[in-house]
Design a protein that fits this description.
about 260 residues, alpha+beta, Glucose Permease (Domain IIA), 5 helices
């Protein structure tokens, strides 16, 4: 017997079946991981958002698809909904208060010309920059010497994250997180993070740690930019995310974590 000759493991198995099984196995091995998980609506939202962010999909097509995904996100959330969910708005930086919000009385919120479906090329500044004590720009709080935790402002599902941002990347938000709050039809956006501690599809409660403040993003990376979190809230209007100003909620209705 030639030792270099491979004998069939079971001569009774038809050769076409063996070929088909090997083809299936190889397909599963080399299939990109996002495709394996896209059946979950959060993963599908993430893939759709990448196309929106990078302007790879027509606006109307993206709007239609997003409208189809939202009911699925709601269903996925309701399956794990807890009766004691805290609906208070948590201030998104642990150890900080509304005094850290940039501008005068929330003047940093400038929505003019903004459209969610303009992606990475959108106009306006439909959110608030919340600054930390970081004069040497090392990403650590000057008083504690520790990273500043970004916490979820509300319960919801993580629908998109970006990690491992590099200065050569054109993504303005750097390392970011999107969380969808199904019962309020709200999207919460946290940008310029250093570390991201959550994954797509993960269910979070208000006050849960999402990551840490950083200096990632096209403008936030520059020396002239003080270290901050960019925080934005959108409310879905028939599948169309429209920015809303959360300033009064952050000042008067937030729950602050020490």
């Amino acid at each position: 017997m030639n030792p270099w000759t491979l004998e069939p493991l079971n001569p009774r198995i038809p050769e076409p079946l063996i070929v088909a099984l090997l083809t299936l196995i190889l397909t599963l091995i080399y299939l990109p991981s996002p495709l394996l998980s896209q059946r979950h609506p959060a993963h599908e939202w993430h893939l759709l958002y990448l196309n929106v962010r990078d302007r790879l999909i027509p606006k109307e097509e993206a709007k239609t698809r997003l409208g189809e995904l939202e009911p699925l996100l709601k269903d996925a959330y309701l399956q794990t909904l807890k009766s004691n969910d805290d609906e208070r708005l948590y201030f998104p930086l642990k150890g900080y208060t509304s005094d850290s919000i940039g501008g005068k009385r929330g003047s940093g919120y400038q929505v003019q010309g903004y459209d969610f479906f303009d992606g990475n090329q959108h106009k306006g500044h439909p959110g608030h920059d919340i600054f930390i004590r970081d004069r040497d720009q090392d990403g650590l709080d000057d008083l504690t010497g520790r990273p500043v935790a970004v916490v979820s402002a509300s319960p919801g599902i993580v629908v998109s994250v970006n990690i491992n941002w590099e200065p050569s990347s054109p993504v303005r938000g750097g390392n970011y997180i999107w969380v969808y709050h199904p019962t309020k039809s709200r999207y919460y956006y946290y940008a310029h993070l250093k570390e991201v501690s959550v994954r797509i599809g993960q269910r979070v409660a208000g006050g849960d740690r999402l990551g840490t403040v950083g200096r990632t993003g096209v403008n936030a990376y520059l020396r002239r930019s003080p270290t901050h979190l960019h925080f934005t809230v959108h409310e879905s209007k028939e599948g169309y995310p429209k920015p809303v100003n959360p300033y009064n909620e952050l000042v008067k209705g937030s729950f602050f974590l020490k």
